[in-house]
Specification:
By secondary structure, the chain is of the alpha/beta class. It has 2 domains: about 375 residues, TIM Barrel (Alpha-Beta Barrel), CATH 3.20.20.70; about 100 residues, CBS-domain. The protein contains 19 helices and 22 strands. It has an 8-stranded parallel barrel, surrounded by 7 helices. Helix 13 crosses helix 16. The protein is elongated, with a radius of gyration of 25 Å. Bound molecules: inosinic acid.
Length: about 500
């Protein structure tokens, strides 16, 4: 006989609905905050907070560098997938961290370099403006594409075509982007070199980037104004992968595993915390309180919960393991709150797998999750790493599970190949730009929070009242008893998508 048999069925997110609380007049959408901790941070460091409660899943068809950049700009984070070589993943992290968000460390050229040589660097890097630095490292001028014509000046030297320092507006010792912006606006120029007191170049600020920054008020960055980067790691090559990712200034790592309640996972956490105590580690996935205790006692700073619910997941069918995500969140957040009252340490919970619509996000947050991880939602966006295809006159993007045969190919010959798959490969309907989709999703989350009478996620945890719905009331919640014409099928599809 089994050690324990639980007779109550486990529940999914779609089985719950929120009941209203009193909505106060001050609870306008602008006054509702979606800020939430990415990981537990003793010093409350700003970069360890998300401004929106959404992250993209560590999957080949979801989270590459482009998603990492756009999502961090919009207040969330992409978990860059680890089912690729260490070098390829490190390159993605580098791309995110080097993204020009404010102060840029530019590629420089020497005064005695020929224009031809500089032109080659321009072609190689794609940059059109270069600061000119002498042998002592002092800033002596700027050269941009307007200062030469390659057909005429190829043999000339940079110093003969550059704009010299005396004719350039620059800032000295500026660390505040707003101050840099003020100077740029006054200068009428498109670029502002920032020098240190000795006259050496510290960085450059481009007007285009500042405009970008002002358009992204929720952006998450580190103290050096670089975008935040989160990377998944596996339990096989972590001793090589983590140092390589750190070399590129990764901010947080997340162990990618369908079952996080394992000694392998503990090995990664112990090793990483020992060698890199400043680097927060996210663990998971777990689905019960024992798994939660195991991971936090091993030293994780956030925990992913969920097993068997992902849209591409066949784990439940293949192995008979898993749990409805709602029940998982309820059980684990109970234990998380207990752990908090015992230790004062608040471990964020990430609801992962099967969060398909905005209403699922709100229910997951209300039940106790601090943010949600989604694969399918983000796979549909322009910024996911896949190419669009047209199927039956519909624009689609491919989406496949990390446990599918397609995703497993990268590790052939590297590790023991699994004898069976835990994921499938399919298509999702292309949805357009991330920022447009997020706008609607976030508006709906805020509207639900207003209905509940709360202004932030902590209040939602404390005050939400939820109720299980019957199958009939789910039916009643959709359009019924009216004629929807030929759009009927489309409408149903649309609803699960949004
Ligand atoms: P979705 O948001 O419902 O598409 O689920 C995405 C989540 O499914 C990921 O964050 C993983 O936790 C999980 N997942 C990814 N690939 C697989 C797989 O091949 N099998 C089972 N679960 C998977």
């Amino acid at each position: 006989m089994a050690k324990k048999i639980i007779d109550d069925p486990s529940r999914t997110l779609m089985e719950y609905r929120l009941l209203p609380g009193l909505t106060k007049k001050k609870q306008s959408p602008e006054n509702i905050s979606l800020r939430t901790p990415l990981v537990y941070s003793e010093k409350n460091e700003k970069k360890y907070f998300l401004n929106i409660p959404l992250v993209s899943a560590a999957m080949q068809s979801v989270s590459g560098a482009e998603m990492g950049i756009e999502l961090a700009k919009l207040g969330g984070a992409a978990f860059i997938f680890c089912s690729q070589s260490i070098a390829a993943q490190a390159k993605m992290i580098r791309k995110i961290k080097m993204h020009k968000a404010g102060f840029v460390k530019p590629k420089t050229v020497l005064p005695n370099m020929s224009i031809q040589k500089m032109f080659e660097i321009r072609k190689e890097t794609g940059y059109s403006t270069f600061p000119v630095i002498d042998e002592k490292g002092l800033f002596v001028g700027l050269i941009s594409k307007w200062d030469y014509d390659i057909s005429l000046h190829a043999k000339a030297l940079v110093k003969n075509r550059m704009i010299p320092k005396k004719d350039i507006e620059f800032g000295t010792n500026i660390e505040d982007l707003k101050e840099a912006n003020r100077l740029l606006l006054e200068s009428h120029k498109s670029v502002l070199p920032i020098l240190d007191k000795q006259g050496k170049l510290s960085s450059m600020v481009f007007r285009k980037d500042i405009n970008d920054l002002l358009n992204f008020p929720l952006e998450i960055h580190d103290k050096k104004k670089r975008l935040i980067a989160v990377a998944a790691v596996n339990t096989h090559d972590f001793k090589k992968r983590i140092p390589a990712l750190l070399q590129e200034n990764v901010d947080v790592i997340s162990i990618d595993s369908s079952d996080g309640f394992t000694e392998y996972q503990k090995d990664v956490i112990t090793w990483s915390n020992h060698h890199f105590p400043e680097l927060p580690v996210i663990g998971g996935n777990i689905i019960n309180k024992e798994g939660f205790r195991f991971l936090v006692e091993a030293g994780v700073k956030a925990v992913k919960v969920g097993m068997g619910g992902g849209s591409i997941c066949i784990t439940q069918e293949q192995k008979g393991t898993g749990r409805g995500l709602a029940t998982t969140i309820i059980k684990v957040s109970e234990e998380r709150d207990k752990y908090f009252s015992e230790t004062g340490i608040y471990i964020p919970l990430i609801a992962d797998g099967g969060v398909t619509s905005t209403k699922d996000v709100t229910v997951a947050l209300a039940l106790g999750a601090d943010y949600v991880m989604m694969g399918r939602y983000f796979a549909r966006m322009e910024e996911s790493p896949t190419d669009k295809v047209v199927v039956n006159n519909r624009v689609m993007k491919p989406y496949w599970g990390e446990g599918s045969a397609r995703a497993q190919k990268w590790k052939e010959k590297r590790y023991n190949q699994a004898k069976f798959v835990e994921g499938v490969e399919g298509m999702v309907e292309y949805a357009g730009r991330l920022r447009d989709n997020l706008e609607e999703t976030l508006a709906k989350i805020k509207a639900a929070m207003r209905t509940c009478g709360v202004t932030n996620i902590t209040e939602l945890h404390q005050q939400a009242v939820l109720e299980i719905v019957s199958a009939l009331s789910i039916r009643e919640g959709k359009p019924h008893d009216i004629y929807l014409g030929t759009e009927n099928h489309e409408q149903e599809h649309h609803e699960t998508t949004k």
